[in-house]
Protein: Sec translocon accessory complex subunit YajC
Organism: Hymenobacter frigidus
Amino acid sequence: MFLTLLLQASGGMDFMQLIFPAAIGLVVYFFMIRPQQKRSADAKSFRQSLAKGSRIVTIGGLHGLVVDLTDDTVVVEVDRGTKLRFDRSAIAREVGSKASSTAIEAAAGA
């Protein structure tokens, strides 16, 4: 029976046999690789656009206020007088805008 199956197989490459792997490759690219590249580019542009006064969250979950920036590092104030230095790559997201953080600080100081 196995021998008859081998004899029935076509000897040449069929057009559909070439399209199927190409279609799988396109699906993998558009649903897995391309979105990951976009997320990476968005994260990089976010980290480059950080400014003093931004309220941020690190990848470790630490909340703070950006008080100083260099090309590679960010100094974050987590409590009054407590400042920590992080790599820019350790910043996960921004919590609020600078205007809202200034309003919150003004209300807390009053």
The beta strands are 55-58, 63-69, 73-79, 82-87, 91-96. Helices lie at 2-8, 15-48, 98-109. The two ends are 89 Å apart (CA to CA). The chain is about 50% helix and 25% strand.
